[in-house]
Amino acid sequence: MDDLIIDDTPLQQMSGFMTLFGVLFVGVLIFIVVSVVRRWKVARDAGYDPLAMDTQIAAQLGRSELLRAAEPTAPGAPAQQRSIEDRLSELDDLHARGVISDAEHAAARTKALEG
Question: Which residues contact 53 (CB under 8 A, 6 or more apart)?
Answer without folding.
Answer: 43
